[in-house]
Amino acid sequence: MSDQGVVLRVAGEGDLDVAGGLFRGYLDFYEVKVEDPDAPRAYLAERIRGGESLVLLADVPGAGTVGFAQVYRTFSSLALRPMWILSDLYVDPAGRRTGAGRALLREVLRRAREAGVSGVQLETAYDNHVAQALYEAEGFEREEFHVYFHGLDVRGVEVRGVEVRGVG
Questions:
Q1: Which one, of 128, 167, 123, lies nearest residue 149 by Cα?
Q2: What's the average model confidence in pLDDT over 70-83?
Q3: Of 16-25, 52-61, 114-123, which range is least confident?
C-alpha cells in the first residue's frame, strides 16, 4: 500500500486480462496501431512468463486496477552495472489524479535502489508534458546525449518519435 491509498502489486499470469487492457490503453494513447486486439495481452504474457520484465499494477480502492508499469532489466556499459528501462507507465483516464502514476514510479525507483542498479531510464513523447512534469518532480533529469532511433517495420507496427530521459 502506498501513502496515497494506492495498492501496488506485481502482475502475474492471473492478471493478464486487466494488464492487457491497460497496455492496450497505453498503446492507444501513443497512437500505436495494432491489428490484432489480443496482441497486447499476448505480449505481456510472454514477458511475464519468461521473466523478461517486471510488470507492476496499481489498484485504487473503489476504482479497481487503474495503472501499470513495465520495467526491463538491462546493463549500462558506461557504468559497468545493471540498469533498468522503465518502458511503459500508464494510468487509465478513470484512475488519473489518484496518485497511481506517482505510486508506480516511486515503486519502480524503490525496487531499482534495492536491486543496486546504476539508474532508471525512460522515454516519453515530446508533447507529453504531464508525464514529463511527474518524472522531473520525482528526480528524473533530461539527458544531454543525442538520441538516434532507426525503426524496423517488421510487424507493421507504427511507432511515433520518442524522447529519452533518465536518472542515474
A1: 123
A2: 94
A3: 114-123
Taking the CA atoms of 48, 142, 92 and 98 in sequence, report the sign of the dihedral they define: positive
- Can you give the pLDDT at residue 153? 57
CA 150, 105, 39, 155: dihedral to nearest 10 degrees? Answer: 0
Q: What is the C-alpha separation between 20 and 64, in angstroms, rounded?
A: 15
3-state DSSP assignment of residue 7? strand
Whether 163 shows a pLDDT value over 80: the answer reads no
What is the identity of the amino acid at 10? V
Cβ–Cβ under 8 Å, residues 57 and 67? yes
Beta bridge partners of 141: 166
Contacts of 77 (CB under 8 A, 6+ apart): none
Taking phi over 0 as left and psi of -120 to 50 as alpha, with beta for the rest, 68 belongs to beta
- Reference 122, options 140, 138, 106; nearest CA is 140
Cα dihedral: 50, 53, 59, 63 (round 10): -90
> Which three cell numbers mark 99?
496518485
Give the mean pLDDT of 97-107. 97
Q: Is there a contact between 83 and 38 (Cβ–Cβ < 8 Å)?
A: no
